[in-house]
Design a protein that fits this description.
- This protein is an alpha/beta fold.
- Helix content is about 30%, strand content about 25%.
- The strands form 3 sheets. Strands 2-1-4-5-6-7 form a 6-stranded mixed sheet.
- Helix 8 links the parallel strand 13 and strand 14.
- It is globular and about 65 Å long.
- The chain starts with 6 loop residues before the first strand and ends with a helix.
């Protein structure tokens, strides 16, 4: 089945991730069920576990497999740029639920499987029967991917699937297209935003030439990966805010409002705007009441209550990057990955960030949020046992096979003991 000429994408949500021989996942095929308790694609999912258990591997794999959708299947594929996929026996498969319609077909539901990693021939780690597809309301299964052979050759797999090729062409034809707003809900192509655990806002080099220039990877891309900000002017948050102000299309004001609501509310400070002489953003610590102006002086007669973005606390910088980048690059079908969401955050802030991310998922039907953490506060805030309107919640506790076996024996012993007590009480 070929994809029609015009596509409306109504849903793009991960439902399974299968990992084979990557990182700590060496002893067995590790399968992550990303659906909720009712079997629907989750829009708020927490991956929990101790350090070194593979949480970051899960995030990195989903990000790099999303990148496959932006590559050209008419030419030999490049390396993945991710060592576990470029070296060794590791491989993975990511399964995504899609609802779409075209100019020739009404609404359809499909599962798209994406493969990445080592193989000598076309291989799929999870197969889909008609019954399994029907459980998600799907009647189509499509496949695409890139494999690396033992000789180091990178080859496409799934090229016989005309639908998948059409889907990739549709994405590639729209790369670089302008998004029409901040927190855009009308641009329908899928995108993935990955925030690594190593996120910071660094001082911009003194010798950097500052100007109102388009930020790198501006407009639509299927994948954005964010780590430390500010190594170069074009990659900095200061340049992003200067560029939004220069565009003068409402996105600058929307960005300030979002940041001051989600990051600085209750802190006694706010993002006041930009200093047009120095081309940098200004944080005002005198009051949390925003007084937006088009030109803020960073230094005003020795006033030390105003400072640069890189002078914020580590937690504030992490949140500033997250919400500003999300607002700029979000589409109506967005997957948001945040590794170690609690990094640099006070315990009180950990609960607040979890609540604000939930609110984003509730307010944006096409947003799927995946978090990793080892914070008990983040775990408690998930509140799995309490249904919440607009949220399809679930999580995954990464354990070793030995830990799972020990937990199973404890559960069996508990059932046996309590069963005996119930019988004696009767």
């Amino acid at each position: 089945m070929a994809l029609g000429n015009f596509v409306l994408l109504h849903e793009f949500a991960p439902i399974y991730l299968t990992i084979d021989r990557i990182g700590p996942f060496q002893d067995r095929l590790e399968v992550f069920d990303l659906s909720d308790a009712q079997g629907h694609a989750s829009n708020y999912f927490l991956i929990f576990g101790f350090n070194g258990r593979g949480k970051t591997h899960v995030m990195e794999l989903m990000a790099h497999m999303m990148g496959i959708l932006g590559k050209n299947p008419d030419v030999p594929p490049p390396a993945f740029g991710h060592e576990p996929l470029d070296k060794g026996p590791g491989r993975a498969q990511w399964d995504i639920l899609l609802r779409y319609s075209t100019d020739s077909m009404p609404s359809r539901t499909a599962v798209l499987s994406i493969f990445a990693g080592h193989s000598e021939s076309e291989t799929w780690l999870k197969t889909w029967s008609d019954t399994e597809l029907a459980e998600f309301g799907a009647d189509e299964h499509h496949r695409i991917g890139i494999m690396r052979t033992s000789l180091g050759r990178y080859l496409w797999v799934g090229l016989d699937d005309r639908w998948s090729l059409g889907f990739i062409d549709w994405i590639r034809n729209h790369q670089g297209s302008s998004l029409d707003g901040f927190m855009s809900a009308s641009f329908g192509l899928p995108t993935l935003l990955y925030f690594s655990a190593y996120r910071d806002v660094l001082p911009i080099p003194h010798e950097a030439e500052r100007a109102a220039v388009s930020p790198r990877d501006w407009n639509y891309q299927p994948l954005h990966i964010f780590r430390n900000e500010g190594k170069e002017w074009q990659d900095s948050l200061d340049n992003l805010l200067v560029w939004l102000a220069w565009l003068d299309d409402g996105r600058y004001e929307a960005a300030l409002e979002l940041i001051n609501t989600y990051v600085f509310r209750g802190s006694g400070k706010h993002l006041a705007g930009i200093d047009r002489q120095k081309l940098c953003a200004v944080i005002d610590c005198a009051s949390e009441t925003p007084r937006y102006r088009r030109n803020i002086l960073l230094e005003n007669q020795g006033d030390e209550r105003k400072h640069r973005l890189d002078q914020l606390s580590s937690g504030e910088k992490s949140l500033l990057q997250l919400f500003l980048r999300l607002g700029v690059h979000m589409t109506s079908n967005t997957i948001l990955l945040i590794d170690e969401v609690d990094a640099h955050l006070h315990v009180d802030w950990q609960a607040r960030i979890a609540q604000r991310l939930k609110e984003l998922a509730q307010d944006n039907a096409g947003l799927s949020i995946f978090l990793t953490s080892h914070s008990e506060e983040i775990m408690k805030s998930a509140a799995w046992e309490y249904p919440e309107n607009g949220l399809r919640k679930n999580g995954f506790l990464i354990e070793t096979p030995e830990e799972e076996e020990r937990a199973r024996r404890i559960q069996e012993e508990a059932r046996r003991v309590y069963g005996q007590l119930d019988q004696e009480g009767a």
